[in-house]
Amino acid sequence: MNEKVALVTGASSGIGEAVARRLAEQGYVTYGAARRTDRMRPLAAVGIRTLSLDVTDEDSTRDAVGQILAETGRLDVLVNNAGYGSYGAIEDVPIDEARRQFEVNVFGAMRLVQLVAPTMREQRSGRIVNISSMGGEIYTPLGGWYHGTKFALEGLSDCLRLELGPFGVDVVVVQPGGIRSEWGTIAAENVVRTSGSGPYARQASAVAGMLAASGERDSSPDVVADAVERAVTATRPRTRYAIGFGAKPLI
Ligand code: NDP
């Protein structure tokens, strides 16, 4: 097979869905992966191959990558996008939930890196795109555990770039700002559930309002697809593509 092959996690919604569509339009044999496979039917209808994937599950990730390699024999692009925002005051978020936040946003991404790196090294080519956040460089109250995962993802990506660079594999970080998707609703629900009553109630109400706000302020997931397209097609990609609030699609 001569065509390049891409895997996008979290393709059942928002940014991942837009990125999967974009890579397919660019001619990649594209695999979209998520737990809710029913939500990816529209992607399957346009030729995107859909996979059931829970990034926190060892077997699930191994099976998904195994299936791609069995079907195509290669893997050129991994977009680690699956993630959510576990919002609430640091002292209010139960440690088990904080651990789950890291399991999805950090270990999920790195589990996939470990599975695809041998193939990319052997190919002596590949792009790993990690969807971080502006929240991987800045921080807000009641977002500590979420920011912690994105700061971790930034640091891991920088180390990974140094490690894999000599093998011809590029590692790129994309940092979205406010993007219209289900992310804000889920994060707002989390902050209200976790810190909506008690000492942080006032902060929680303000943060929930900010997270739930969408429309004019937030950008279309297409602006993130623009950045990912650049990250995978540029001859020499930048290490980071930052997307500010209110960014407009380039394409
Ligand atoms: P959505 O909530 O719309 O989509 C999140 C995706 O992640 C879904 O497809 C979901 O699929 C998937 N996902 C969650 N948990 C798992 C899991 N355990 N295994 C596999 N897939 C999982 O949010 P966005 O599209 O906005 O978010 C995508 C990424 O962008 C996240 O990493 C987020 O942190 C980041 N980001 C988003 C911003 C925004 O303003 N929207 C801003 C900055 C960064 P399913 O539930 O079907 O498994």
Automatic annotation (TrEMBL):
GO molecular function terms attached to this record: oxidoreductase activity
InterPro entries: NAD(P)-bd_dom_sf (IPR036291), SDR_fam (IPR002347)
UniProt-listed Pfam families: adh_short
Keyword set, alphabetical order: Oxidoreductase
Record-linked SUPFAM superfamilies: NAD(P)-binding Rossmann-fold domains (SSF51735)
Record bears the keyword Oxidoreductase: yes
UniProt xrefs under CDD domains: 17beta-HSD-like_SDR_c (cd05374)
Family label: Belongs to the short-chain dehydrogenases/reductases (SDR) family.
Name of the protein: Oxidoreductase
PANTHER family attached to this UniProt entry: NADPH-DEPENDENT 1-ACYLDIHYDROXYACETONE PHOSPHATE REDUCTASE
